[in-house]
User: What shape does this take?
Amino acid sequence: MAEHTKTPWFVSSTCLICDEGAAIVANLFPMNPITCGVGLDESEANAEFIVRACNNYDSLLAALAKIQKLADRALGQNDMHRGKLLNDIGNISEQAIAQAKENNAPQIQNRA
Assistant: This one.
């Protein structure tokens, strides 16, 4: 199985997802909005959603791995130590969510 194009990606002009070198990763331009049922506005929103999801994937996966390790450790701990681990889990979760939301802004760029 081939590897995906390295992130970060951005949305370039209309419905094109590109990598940092401006190579086209995906073209979401609706070929015929009438027959496919997806118009230009929805295609642009889909492109932006895909970029946000892909650009945040690695950091969210890393945060979940940390959370999983802390949760596994918390299961075998006394109440006082478990509370600290659960607090750490909350902090990691908050940071990951904040980072994903911060990266939520569409990255529409015009690169020639």
Residues 21 and 71 are 40 Å apart (CA to CA).
